[in-house]
Amino acid sequence: MRENNLDSSNMSENLQKMVPEKLYDSEQMHEMSLFDLAIILWSKRYWIVALTSIITIASFIYALSLTHVYKAEAVILPPSDADIGVLNVYTTEHKDDLITQTKVMSVVIKNFSSMENKWKFFNQNNLKRLYKNNQKNEVSDRDLFEEGFEPALGIDEPDKNSNKRVVYFESTDAQIASKVLNDYLSFIRDQTKSYLIKDIVSLVETRRNKMNIEIESLKRYAEYAKKDKIKLIEEQLSIARKLNIHENKLVKSGLPSGGYLGKIQPSKPDKQTVTTPMQDPSYLEGTRALQTALEVLINRKSNDSHVSGLRELQSELLVLEKTNIDKDKFHVFTIEQMASPPKSPFKPKKKLIVMLTFIAGILVSIILVVIWHFAAYVDAQMKRNA
User: Around Cβ 51, how many Cβ atoms within 10 Å?
Assistant: First the structure.
């Protein structure tokens, strides 16, 4: 135990002797260290070249062993007004209901990025075969999808100065990359069309139900108005008989006619007023005219042609009931550039890997040479002072 303590104290003394007094001069130490470093590196230049070469060659071999990944790209554009014009035939004039380019493109992007759509397309086309060959262990289809297919299919961020969108798919096979991307675009096109048609059909159905209610309300109102008119004519006819007025005296008096056979105008008066039979001068039309109007009203089987606005609603309803949107008559996006097989791989960047490794090899070699020289220097000083 005592001998170990003596050895430790001797080693500390030797290390203190190894440090020259001139190193305490920081400026002189800095100048000497740069000079010494240059001498050291030059003397060990062959070692540096050898180590750098070994590291670079190893990185080159590693880069060659990496699997090539190809990136197929396609460019899509928003639809034109003519492409989606057929959709707005069934919408109202309200701005919120109109189908615009922006709305359609937002649905396209949403459907393209949808995990559900990707999973559906993945299963429909049995794309798990593209990834199972690379797996040594048994992996579930969902894991193959989430780790392989899903991150490889995407859409780039939009350019502020352009409305173009670039979509891509990465694969180890250039032909497969382009084919899968083009097929997925066709799939998304059909999905988006179906979604928009379903949305419009739902909107049309809501409007159709609302219009049926309005039409039914107008018809009921017309029936009530008819009964009211019959009741008023009967009252006016009774007055005319009691006053022994058989001929029309309204023409001579200049008073307006009752207009019992005119159009029915649904309205909501601001104030409810009650008119007595004597306040209404229609009895001056005489018994003959009143009796004729009464018979016509009683024998009228339909009030539809006498209700203002009813025929317009029925005509619009007829158009909505014949709603049949053909998918082939509108387009949700335009493919400016279809995906084609890439000529060169997207990754790995072999030249970049070798270049960065070469630079790193030089730095590592220099550090190793300096450490090696310092260790040899310390060992020599310890032997000299022993």
Answer: 18
User: Given the structure tokens 């009774």, which residue do they identify?
Assistant: 238
CB 236 within 8 A of CB 255: no
For residue range 243-278, list pLDDT tens digits in order: 888 887 766 554 455 555 555 666 554 444 445 555
Contact 155, 167 (CB under 8 A): yes
CATH 3.40.50.1000 is right for the domain spanning 67-206+329-337: no
Interior angle at CA 67, CA 64 and CA 70, nearest 5: 120
CA angle 54, 55, 56 (to 5 degrees): 95
The CA radius of gyration of the chain, in Å to the nearest whole number, is 47
SS3 annotation, 15-84: HHHHCCHHHHCHHHHHHHHHHHHHHHHHHCHHHHHHHHHHHHHHHHHHHHHCCCEEEEEEEEECCCHHHH
- Cα–Cα distance measured from residue 172 to residue 4, given in angstroms and rounded to the nearest whole number: 64
The model carries a pTM of 0.62
What one-letter code names the amino acid at 272?
Answer: Q
Q: Kindly tell me the burial class for residue 164, based on how many C-beta atoms sit within 10 Å of its own C-beta (0-12, 13-18, 19 or more).
A: middle
pLDDT at residue 184 is higher than 90? yes
Domain positions in the chain are 67-206+329-337, 212-265+275-320
What pLDDT score was predicted for residue 235?
87
